[in-house]
Amino acid sequence: MPDRTPRQLIADLLRQGPHSAADLARRLGMPMKRVISDLEHVRRSVRERERWAVRAAECLSCGFVFRERERIDAPSRCPECRSRDIRDARFEIQVT
Ligand SMILES: [Zn+2]
Question: Could you tell me the residue ranges of all domains in the chain?
Answer without folding.
Answer: 6-95
